[in-house]
Amino acid sequence: MIPINTPYRYFRCWLLLGALLALSLAHAQPRLAVFPFAATDARLGVAVADRVAQGVAAPKIAPELALTLVPPYIVQEGRFLSPLTLLGGTESRHAARVLQGALGVEVAVTGAVRLAADGLELTLHVARDDGARSFRFRAPESAPGRLVAAARAAIWATTDLPPRRAPAHIDLASPYGDFVRGLVLLGQGRAAEAAELLERAARAPGAEARFENRRRALRAALAGDPASPPLLRAALALGAQPLDVGGARRAFADAERHAALPLAQLWRALLAVQAGEGAPELEALARGWASYPFGAVQAALEAAVREGSLSAAARAELAATEASAALLGGVLLAQVLADPALEAALASRLGRRLPTFAYPFERVSQLALAADDPLAAAQALRTATRLEPAGPQSDLYWTNLGWAYYLLGVLGESEAASRRALELNPGATVARYNLALVQTISGRLGEALASYEAATERDLAATGTVDAAAIEDLRAARARFPQVAGIDYALATLLEASGEDAAAARALGRFVARAGPRDAPFVAAAEARRAALRAPAPPLELSPPTVGLGPERLAVARFLPGDRVQLLTELSTPGAQLPRRVTLELALRAPSGEVLVRERRTERLALPPQSVAVVLEDLALTLPAGLSPGPYTLLVRAREGGQAAAQVTLEVGEGRASLARQLVASGVVLRDLRTQRPLYAAGPAITPDDPEVADARLLNRLLAELARSAAVAEALPDVTQGRFVGLAGAEVFAASGADDVRDFLTFLLLSGEAVDAPFAELYARWAVAGAPRAPLASP
Questions:
Q1: Which N-terminal residues, if any, form the signal peptide (predicted)?
Q2: How would you label 569-604 residue by residue, b for 16+ Cβ within 10 Å and e otherwise?
Q3: Residue 19 · residue 236 · CB < 8 Å
């Protein structure tokens, strides 16, 4: 069984990192693009890249602009995919080659600055049309300027770009530090704050002349001055909330008019396509396979999305091109057309062109598995796992490699690959199913049943069902390994978990009939389970439920819209024993009889044999926001053959729940760092009160706790992302206001998890993680 990997495909998935070009080069055709260097401290990465870019006299796209201007691929009607999403960042040789083609410049430079045992280490990639060169330089931590000098020398030696004498020194405690922090803030979409920092840097004693030039350029662009650098205006428009389509179009039109810039022409076309309009620029781009192949493949993608076909001319150009960015676009184009032969050919060529890029090998493997060619899949996946032994997609690669090995009959290697996937991601349920399958076939039924139980528990908790592919894999294994009786026992386990009791009983009967000597320990259990499955379903009963607010089921006079109502009831049977699985349903019914909310899940009851009752205490339902005051009925039902139902009346009052009440209802306890006492008491928190007053009281209390907890903040690393980027230590707590704390509490509530921990520690982790407004969704 193989999982599906679908990348996020959103138009604005490219990253914004501000736009500031020197005025003297603002209207020239760029020859060079320098991307921000990856670094633990974002300021250091931007600073080194900025100084490196200063050492080239040619027109350039500076680090603060480069990421913003990477155009996304057209992949569906109204949907786009940034190359950066597939590349996983910029700090690789293959990323440099793709990004060089995407921007249409002669040279692209990417890199990463790391703290090594003996100081700083810079990995540098310099990409041109004919390939890429990689370098590694080291310098003392106190002398990052040496990395700048070495990188400039490498660029001068490997390109035709003219050198320029410029400062290489980096002192982030100087006005240059304010300048760089301003650039980083632009990357967070905080242009007004960035302008203030650039102004401070420009007015400081000893400021470099370019600080003032860039300050003026940004101020002019923010004011909409048509004389300001057009690419700067374009980047600000792309980063606006919401997207300033008109501003971006005007800016790119100015850029194209001044420099005949193909990149600007492509962006104008993309913005038109995004708006659902015709893009005449695509016709000119379609003829540019020799001059700007990335733009040409975009024209082919747009036609494929719109018409569902690829012209013979475009197919011939794709067959001939060696441009990495165009080949990557061709792989996506083949996916749009659902043409596996074309995709396999282009992905194979892309893998040869970019041998350090795992994505084409992943695609080759997926296509090979779909074509029943496990050998080709295993070969591609061995390369992918070597390139990314522990990357974001690595558990997927190891999972699929384990499956390919299974299909090849190499069971030892299959098990090892599945175990590696689980080491990387314990939640890789497909890998666990694959491991269980190999354990079953290898005659280790006890281990297999434990693995299957772990996998089905995750499946049932996540979706309420068992992965149907795991069942089909066992059915296929019965035909492939007819001598292994244990396959039927494993199959019965999954069938029962999925609710197919009759089929599970038949599978257990086959197991008992065919069991060999090493299956003997499981025969008695199989017979007993088969008898239970064939017996009539026992009647079910539910006791009158009790309800309250949150996990502690706190008593309240009235519930409020948004409250999390927790329910407790006892499920029992007058029969011999409860079923091992039951479907539970909660429903909220209005006085009119309309069902407003319904939640259903399948629960596996991990009970000893002959159990006749179990207390269900983790049932909960959130009352909808905007619920009108009045009485509502909360119903609970249990089904498994028989059915039982019970209900209770909820009185809903007027108003909204305060933040403290929401925290209590969600099981969130925030504690004082020193005393470990809760910062709010459950009783007062649920007492009716003006929510605005209650919220202000809580936020002030939490801000005071941050002020008292400055010592814990001193141990924080520098924040490299989010609203607190560039701050370190107690600066994070000092810069926090009521809105920041409110956003943090919202983040906790949206996570849906009960938490009991010191507030200051949780807040510090949230700040270092970029202070997100909501938990990240799973792909």
A1: 1-28
A2: bebbbebebbbbbbbbbbbbbeeeeeeeeeeeebbb
A3: yes
- What are the distances in angstroms from CA 129 to CA 30, 126, 322? 15, 10, 9
Q: For residues 142 and 44, what is the distance between their CA atoms, to the nearest angstrom? A: 12
Residue 557's pLDDT is: 86
> What is the pLDDT, as a whole number, of residue 24?
37
Cβ–Cβ < 8 Å for 604, 456 = yes
3-state class percentages of the chain: helix first, strand second, coil last, to nearest 5: 50, 15, 35
Give the Cα separation of 343 and 379 in Å (integer): 17
Closest CA to 268 of 259, 28, 14, 277: 277
pLDDT at 214 over 90: yes
Lookup: tokens for 338:
């659902």
Handedness of CA 472, 473, 479, 483 (dihedral sign): negative
Q: How far apart are CA 16 and CA 36, in angstroms?
A: 11
SS3 call for 182: helix
CA angle 184, 46, 294 (to 5 degrees): 95
CA torsion sign, 329 to 334 to 336 to 337? positive
Which of 2-16, 87-101, 411-425, 634-648 is least confident? 2-16
50-54, 91-95, 108-112, 576-580: range with lowest mean pLDDT: 576-580
Could you give the CA distance from residue 719 to residue 734 in angstroms, rounded to a whole number?
Answer: 14
